[in-house]
Amino acid sequence: MKSVKEKVTGFFKKPSGKVATVASAVMLSSPAMAAGEIDVTPVVTALEGLMTPIASVGAAFLGVQVAIRGWKIVRALI
User: Fold this and answer.
1) What's the CA dihedral at 59, 63, 65, 66 to 10 degrees?
2) Residue 49: what pLDDT?
3) CA 22 to chain centre
4) CB–CB of 12/5 below 8 Å?
5) In the chain, how many domains are there?
6) Are residues 30 and 45 in the same domain?
7) Would you state the pLDDT for residue 22?
8) Domain check: are 53 and 78 in the same one?
């Protein structure tokens, strides 16, 4: 059985078709963006509306993580 290190290094040594797919998608979308054919205003507007809920969920998650870590530190001192 391969170790994690062997799996990771083997993954990065092998050429992948995913890289070529992403590169070709970027190359094909560049002329379309330069010509101004793509209107991203609705997407940007939708994402701007989601910034506050996403930030509040992230803050709550970090708060819980800090509280758990603090409780473990306090419990270790007792």
Assistant:
1) 130
2) 87
3) 16
4) no
5) 2
6) no
7) 59
8) yes
Q: Provide the residue type at 26 as one letter.
A: V
**Tokens representing residue 67 in the block:** 């509280």
| Placement of tokens 């800090």 in the chain | 66
Residue 34 and residue 46 in one domain = no
Structure tokens at 53: 């809920």
pLDDT tens, position by position, 33-70: 666 678 888 888 888 889 999 999 999 999 999 999 99
Residue 52 domain boundaries: 39-78
Q: Can you read off the two tokens belonging to residue 75?
A: 């419990």
Which amino acid type is present at position 58? G
Count, residues in the chain: 78
Q: Which of 12, 48, 25 is nearest to 4 (CA)?
A: 12
